[in-house]
Fold this protein.
Amino acid sequence: MSDDHRHDPNPHGPAARVKALEELLVEKGLVDSARLDEIIETYQHAVGPRAGARVVARAWCDRAFHRRLMTDAVAACAELGIAGPEGGHLVAVENTARVHNLVVCTLCSCYPWPVLGLPPAWYKSFAYRSRAVKDPRGLLREFGVVIPDEVEVRVWDSSAEQRYIVIPERPAGTKSMTEAELADIVTRDSMIGVGKVLAPSRAGGRRGAR
Ligand code: FE
């Protein structure tokens, strides 16, 4: 076995099997490993969650866009030049004072690549996938998000047919911020539903400087 496998605790585990499958596909000329690397690089660095953050910031600032996003997220994202594989069936779900949305893929790791890039490792873990359904409030507490009892938690199970982006609540005290500044404070976790967007702190942020 090659050196590549020496850190894998389980030589028959999923990682080793995926690697063997990839090697076989490359060997048979069915996939081009350089092209695979290019795709992963693109979604890890060039796309990433900043695309989703632009969508959220636009929705916060433009009511008409917000309406279009909630009706047809694919078309609304296309307006911002955001489209691509794994994004053809995107649905936007919105957090409010009464509802908190949480996204999971209980089966595997379906995720809206064009708006969020590649999923974080924990999103693919069995613990996350099972607890999101069995104990969403407990899971959210571990992410530091405490949802009051009176707020409903809605869990959305992604699939190849449907993927979700959470539109988090715009934090108080951000009225004077521009759309670009708002996009800067929108986090990946808030668009999965395991985080909240926080206003820049008074001490360190621009508001404190004024
Ligand atoms: Fe999946």
